[in-house]
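Progress report, Aim 2. The chain analyzed during this reporting quarter is listed below.
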Amino acid sequence: MTTTVALFDIAGTIISVNPWVFILTQPEIDQSKVRWEKIRFIPTYYGNKLGLVSDVTFRHHWIVGMARLFKGWKRASVQKVFDRIVNQELADTYYPKILDRVAYHKQQGHLVILVSGMFDMLVQTFAERVGADIGLGTELAFNSDVCAGKITGPSFMGARKVDAVNRALAARQIEPDFAQSYAYADSFSDIPLLASVGHPVATYPEQKLRTHAENQGWDILD
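Predicted structure tokens for the chain:
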């Protein structure tokens, strides 16, 4: 028996803001490290603006830098910050239409999966908040419950989101019916995720994705 899945990106899709802004301003975060990571990111930032660095590479470099901010933190301390952000500071930023879509898919018996380039612990916290079945994100590395300040394996960007979904379903021995499945995302870099299902929905899309969705005849939600 096959399963219909509903895949959701998070930033710009489920919530209206960039959660990294909230992470960087947490009182526990060392602001001298934040400033240094921003400096390190300047070549990637301007390379992306000039079209020399892809959106996928841009986002990968960013999350690698963000992982360094948590080096030496206990897992519980990281989770405490993520809980505060997801359940308190971002409480007013969730799109009601998307929460309704999540609820609809749950009512239909679909498997709801959040998949994002953000850290796995953060994505799983979002999944608990909105009632999703699975949360998939870039794995933040820990050694004996202490953050190593790096990621484990690849970041979940672009086509890697599709790979992550396939691995998660295979690990759970779930056979998906992608032709009958749904995906929601706002970014041009998420075209592989949207194209992997029979019912792609460009959700509050950036202009490049909107144009692509219109050309493909995809649904647009905004």
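The chain has one domain: 5-221. The chain has a mean pLDDT of 93. These observations will guide the mutagenesis work planned for the next reporting period.
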